[in-house]
Design brief:
single chain; alpha+beta; 6-stranded mixed beta sheet; two-stranded antiparallel ribbon; globular
Length: 309
C-alpha cells in the first residue's frame, strides 16, 4: 500500500541500474546495493568519426533490447508491505515499512520540495513492484541514486559535463546526409528544429555537415553549453546524462530535459536512422517493438527526473 494520494502511475518497467539487497533492522532503513551500473554502457563513449561508431575501444553498439537481455540481475522478492512519502526538514523521503530508502553508499534519499511529483513517482515505482522486483524496474530511483552518490561531488559533476559535451562534437543531429531521400526528409523534419532551437536559445553557432569526418563544433559553442550544463543540479544532470547516452545525442538529451521536446519527439529524433532503414527494408518483427518501448521508457524517466530540477 502506498501512503497518501498517488498520481496515476502504472507499473513501470523502465531500465534501471540498482536492485534492493536487504532491509537493515539495525539502522531502521532500507539499504540498496549496486546491481547494473549503467543501462547501456559502463563509460561515456561518444561517437568516433573514424570508425563511424563509438569511442576508442568501445563495445557499446547493443540496442536497448539487447542490453535488457544481457544485463540479468539476481531474483529479489518484495520484502515490504507499505510504501510512503514523508516530508522531513523541507524535503521528501521514500519509506518502505517506515524505513527510509538509502543509496548504495548509505545516504538517505532526499528529494527537494520543488520536486514533490518526483517523490510520489519514485514511491510509485516501488509500490508497483509485485512479488519479484524486475531487474530494470526502478529507473527513477536509479537516477536519484546517481545524483546523490555520484553527481553531488563537484569533481564528478564537472567530469560528467565534459564527457557529455564530447557527444556534442559529433552529434548525430548535426550530421545531415544527402541521400537516401527518406533519410534526408526525416533529418530535416526531426533534426533541423532541434539545431535551430539550440542556436536561438544559447546564442551559438552549430555546424551541420553531410561528412562525419568533418563534423566538429566551434570551441565557443562548446564553452557556452558547458556554462549552461555546469549549472544543472545533480538531479537534472543525472537526467541529462541518461538521456544523452540513450539518444546518443547531446542536443536531443538537452532539448528533452529543457522541455523543448516531448518524450515521444525525443525518441523519434533518436531513431531517425533506424526509421529510415525500416522504411527501406521493413521492420524486424518484435525486436523493433521492444527497442522502441525501451528507449521511450528511459527517456520518460529522464524527463520526469528533470521536471522542476
Amino acid at each position: 500500500m502506498l501512503s497518501g494520494t498517488l498520481f496515476a502511475h502504472g507499473r513501470n518497467r523502465v531500465l534501471g541500474a540498482v536492485m534492493v539487497h536487504r532491509a537493515s533492522a539495525n539502522t531502521g532503513s532500507v539499504v540498496v546495493g549496486k546491481g547494473i551500473s549503467h543501462a547501456f554502457c559502463t563509460t561515456h563513449r561518444p561517437r568516433d568519426a573514424s570508425k563511424n561508431t563509438v569511442g576508442p575501444g568501445a563495445q557499446c553498439s547493443d540496442s536497448a533490447a539487447e542490453t535488457l537481455a544481457k544485463n540479468k540481475a539476481p531474483v529479489i522478492r518484495r520484502f515490504w508491505k507499505n510504501t510512503a512519502v514523508e516530508e522531513r526538514d523541507g524535503k521528501y523521503i521514500i519509506a518502505l515499512d517506515k524505513r527510509p530508502i538509502k543509496t548504495p553508499s548509505g545516504k538517505q534519499i532526499q528529494i527537494p520540495e520543488s520536486q514533490r511529483t518526483l517523490a510520489w513517482l519514485v514511491a510509485g515505482e516501488w509500490e508497483s513492484q509485485k512479488e519479484v522486483l524486475g531487474s530494470h524496474s526502478l529507473p527513477l530511483t536509479s537516477l536519484v541514486f546517481r545524483s546523490i552518490d555520484g553527481l553531488s561531488d563537484p569533481h564528478v559533476h564537472a567530469d560528467v559535463v565534459s564527457k557529455l559535451l564530447k557527444y556534442f562534437q559529433t552529434d548525430s543531429v548535426c550530421l545531415h546526409e544527402e541521400h537516401p531521400q527518406t533519410l534526408v526528409a526525416l533529418q530535416q523534419k526531426h533534426y533541423t528544429p532541434i539545431v535551430d532551437w539550440a542556436k536561438a536559445e544559447y546564442g551559438i553557432d552549430i555546424q551541420t555537415t553531410p561528412n562525419i569526418f568533418a563534423l566538429r563544433q566551434q570551441p565557443q559553442a562548446v564553452e557556452n553549453l558547458r556554462n549552461v550544463v555546469s549549472e544543472f543540479s545533480p538531479l537534472k544532470l543525472a537526467a541529462l546524462e541518461k538521456a544523452v547516452m540513450t539518444a546518443k545525442s547531446f542536443l536531443i538529451g538537452l532539448a528533452l530535459v529543457e522541455q523543448r521536446l516531448s518524450v515521444e519527439e525525443a525518441a523519434v529524433a533518436a531513431q531517425v536512422e533506424a526509421s529510415s532503414q525500416t522504411q527501406l527494408w521493413g521492420e524486424l518483427e518484435n525486436a523493433h517493438d521492444i527497442d522502441n518501448a525501451a528507449i521511450r521508457q528511459i527517456l520518460g524517466a529522464s524527463a520526469c527526473v528533470a521536471l522542476g530540477a
